[in-house]
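Q: Is it fine to ask for two folds in a single conversation?
A: Yes, each is treated on its own. Send the first.
Q: Here.
A: Result:
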Amino acid sequence: MALPSFPIEPTMPITTGRTYLAIPGPSVSPERVLNAMHRSAPNIYEGEIVDMVGTLIPDLRRVAMTRQHVAIYIANGHGAWEAANCNMFSRGDRALLAATGRFGHGWAEGLQRLGVKVDIIDFGKSSPADPQRIADALRADVAREIRAVQVTHVDTASSARNDLAAIRAAIDSTGHPALLAVDAIASLGCDELRMDEWGIDVLVGASQKGLMLPPGLGFIWFSDKALEASRRADLVTPYWDWKPRGTGTEFWQYFGGTAPTHHLYGLREALTMMLDEEGLPQVWARHHRLAKAVWATFDAWSKDTGIALNVADPASRGWSVTAARIPDGGAGALRRWLEAEAGVTLGIGLGMALSTEPAYQDFLRVGHMGHVNAHMTLGVLATMEAGMQALGIEHGPGALEAAAGALVG
């Protein structure tokens, strides 16, 4: 009996298999982390989880390179923003915020809704902050009303990375007492980050990017100076108050109530992988090498085309996410092709244009953060090139060879 014949169409999707979310968070969670979370709920009053959390606090300090206090919140990054804002300010206070992309403006909007007056220095969507302009703004504040200078380390939308050590030096040069508060949500566990060495007073992080967990945990590291400043903040509420979370004596105070048990087990596994097995300097170096492979690919694609990286200077690009432009709606078309035909999801061009504007379709982001390696990153880049060929998007040659060279060079 003859077997039935089925035609194989070259245009059929090839999405069967494991899909890949190559967006700048949530990032890929390792199987080890997911397996650590897949367990029965523990006794939250004594025993194993209390002992385990006792090991987390020193390791959270290690990942931020600090000896300062740390507070854990059941929240995403926006919740951690609000916690930082509420602990630093009273209604009517002033903040100085250096915006280098959509997330800088988002942090400012949260402050404004709380009744804080925000002086925004907008450095655009494609460049880092100029420390001299921050210093000039502080010198102009002769009444010393500004309570904090706030800046993203890496803006997740623009991929612009700020020189935090230079910003700290600029603040110090003025003698101004303002705190330095940093959003490190996109950079923690990816880019080199040294809280104490760089003089950061408040550092904000979240679980879903470099820490390789699902969304759900927010973190704030805060200095003694920030702790003292928070004692006058009238915006702080019982839940957001970082004092019991960072300096309390009872287990429940770490979390403002019931512990986020399963996230904590996952966090324990993630920190072990990062700090004790790979090593934090190696984690940073891996992200830098993978980022350079992505940049080399876009540099090759850009030859004699309109394709371009969003941040021109490599020294001012984050190592966890790359924002780029493919004109004439190419970015949007490529994103849709990749998800429908190849099982790869890229990030939208957040904040580059309104979603109602045609230019919105010209921007995308590639996430390369957390649990990523060479074949994952090269696979995304190769699939992007296949999509460009399928869609007829003009692109320069030699991109994949350039990516390989960047990885081994």
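Q: Second one now.
A: Result:
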Amino acid sequence: MKVILSRKGFDSQYGGMPSPILPDGTLLSLPIPSKEDTTKYTDLTWNGKSYYELIQELKPSSRIKANYTCHLDPDIRKEAADRLDGWKLTFGQTGFPLGHLQKQKVGIGDLFLFFGSFRQTEFIDGKLSYVKGASALHVIYGYLQVGDIVCSQDSVPHWLTEHPHAKTERWKQPNAIFIASDLLSLCPEQPGAGCLSYADKLVLTKQGCSKSVWDLPDFFRDIPITYNANAWKDDCFVSTAKGQEFVFEANSEAVEWIKHLLLQ
């Protein structure tokens, strides 16, 4: 099974801030701004507040305005928006990153582990704030095992028509939408995709280090990860600063590690 460590959501470049680790443990990945898409931050909600309101509470100086649109992808949090009948959890990719996935022969049965930049938050006087002194961390916040792949606009089912990668303009270049399997093969009691709640085991960042310095298990030294050929530095793994999809072939130790991560 191929596993893809897939970097998504807000960071210092896209969005200008980390996504929040909410006080209840929710890892709320904020989708990056996108002028090409139609979903607004005001359209997305968590616990009665729009994503726009949460962004403004966390960073009042944010450049994101109420009319800004975003790229809601991966789309793995059902309650974030209104859904068409039959909706399933999905992830789209296009252009060069899709070409990389295709070159690595990523297909049905393979597993995306989504990670991003996150920071702990708390409520102060009813408003969400970053915890003073808390660092930004790379955290695995969700997953999707591929159950099907939509490879042409003619194959887009009705329930998927609102997905950003289903739009006509995205099919003018290499484009694909990965649909989640019904169940997770590694843990058949779990759905094929979903969001995770915060746990220390999901944190990639090595304690006391910058967020791109990871504390991976030692067995990863023997597993090639695309874009990270020279990432190991003594006792840590320094992930590359660029790249969206880091692909590796899971051995038995990696499979057990992933099962440990996803069982909550």
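Q: Anything structural to flag on that second result?
A: Two points. Residues 109 and 171 are 24 Å apart (CA to CA). Helices lie at 51-58, 95-103, 252-262.
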